[in-house]
Design a protein that fits this description.
The protein has 408 residues and is mostly helical. The chain is 52% helix and 1% strand. The chain has a two-stranded antiparallel sheet with strand order 1-2. Helix 11 (235-242) crosses helix 12 (244-253) and helix 15 crosses helix 17 (322-333). The model is unreliable at 1-54 and 399-408 (pLDDT under 50).
Length: 408
């Protein structure tokens, strides 16, 4: 098939949908049924929520031993005192490291005394710590009771306007579920940030179309600016590896447009060169979107299997003038480095005629790229036959160096 029609694309476009299931009250642990009221008491609190207590060397030692796996009689542990001592941060850890180390303490406390742990977490005045500790509790609970874990996440997360990360325990299993559970889990964790995700392993019978359609429905159900906290980045590309035609047809028929590079790269090893180049050409000219974004995604696709034949076919099929496309793709190539990108860029630059290279390197799209990203090309350009005067015109000056004379 040749992609020769107007392209409206969704690729790994995700967001959230309203959860529509209930769990019977009797199935949820007691902590799930407790109202999130801040406990009252006579203990004075610091602004970060920890109590003012004199340093306790014995407690410091106990916390270190506990986190190192040398636990005394767990039944006799005072988790509250331990975690409050820990959050005094005697070792001077940065906030992220402090939270990661607190994960075990909080989750263990929840297992030992769910009500006390949950109420203490919800009483903290540091929103970031509260969200992180809730995520730790949800993650531990999900290992034994997924329904209860998702109920807790919804009750103390989305229902209270609090955004939680997806726990690592659920990330690791997300692709190994069926599509309905995938959507149920994904929809339980949201954030006011751009989409984040990682690679996932999907089972043989995973319904990619249902998952993608469900993710599109999520977007319609969330307020502006809110996204799922985590979605696998290889969702569409894995489908393309298994059924290229179905994935491609789905992308063409969606009404939303986004990134198609994942779909294309997923099929890089199987789709014929001309069709693959045509897909990159479509991406480079998606309407009503910034040309720079189109070019970056097109370059990502082209670099996955770069060859002179692929670049030649791309330039033949891409709308617009050849020189304009060369300039935009060259500019996009400066945004990537390492792996196969450097080799692909050299193939692209070598594919140009000397006049095309001279024009592309001096074009406005390329000049908009950070000069630091496009300085180290003099050896390559010299090998391709350009003289020092041309190179000075094509590359940004080094620090303290005056720009070359355009007439050199």
């Amino acid at each position: 098939m040749k992609p020769n029609k107007t392209l409206l694309i969704v690729a790994l476009f995700v967001a959230g949908f309203s959860l529509a299931w209930m769990i019977r009250r009797g199935e949820a642990p007691a902590a799930k049924q407790t109202e999130a009221e801040t406990p009252t008491g006579s203990v004075a609190r610091k602004p970060d929520g920890t109590t003012r207590q004199d340093d306790d060397p014995r407690m410091k030692r106990l916390v270190r031993e506990y986190l190192a796996g040398r636990s005394p009689d767990v039944a006799k542990l005072d988790y509250r005192k331990m975690i409050e001592e820990f959050f005094k941060n005697p070792d001077g850890l940065d906030e992220i490291e402090l939270l990661w180390k607190a994960e075990k303490l909080v989750a263990d406390w929840y297992e030992a005394d769910p009500n006390a742990a949950l109420l203490w977490v919800l009483s903290q005045q540091n929103p970031r710590r509260t969200s992180f500790m809730l995520t730790s509790i949800v993650g531990r609970l999900s290992e034994t009771d997924l329904d209860a874990a998702l109920t807790l996440a919804k009750r103390y997360g989305a229902d209270e306007g609090r955004h939680l990360e997806m726990p690592r325990q659920l990330k690791e299993k997300l692709g190994k579920t069926d599509a309905e559970e995938f959507l149920r889990v994904t929809g339980s964790f949201t954030q006011y940030l751009g989409l984040s995700g990682g690679m996932a392993e999907f089972g043989d019978g995973f319904d990619f179309q249902r998952a993608l359609d469900g993710l599109a429905e999520m977007k319609a159900g969330l307020e502006e600016g809110v996204n799922p906290a985590y979605v696998p980045t290889n969702l569409l590309s894995e489908w393309a590896k298994r059924d290229w035609d179905a994935a491609w047809d789905w992308a063409l028929n969606t009404k939303d447009q986004a990134d198609l590079s994942g779909l294309a790269k997923g099929a890089a090893a199987t789709v014929p060169t001309q069709e693959y180049a045509g897909l990159a050409a479509f991406i480079a000219a998606i309407p009503d979107r910034e040309p720079e974004r189109n070019a970056i995604q097109a370059w990502d696709v082209l670099s996955a299997r770069a060859s002179p034949a692929l670049f030649s076919s791309f330039l033949d099929q891409a709308p617009g003038g050849r020189q304009e496309n060369l300039s935009r793709i060259l500019a996009a190539s400066f945004n990537y480095g390492g792996d196969g990108y450097d080799d692909a860029q050299e193939i692209l630059i070598s594919q140009m005629t000397p006049a095309e290279r001279l024009a592309a390197f001096q074009s406005e799209p390329v000049r908009q790229v950070d000069p630091g990203r496009r300085q180290d090309y003099s050896d390559l350009l010299r090998r391709l036959g350009h003289n020092d005067g041309e190179i000075r015109r094509m590359l940004p000056p080094e620090t303290g160096q005056q720009p070359g004379n355009p007439n050199d």
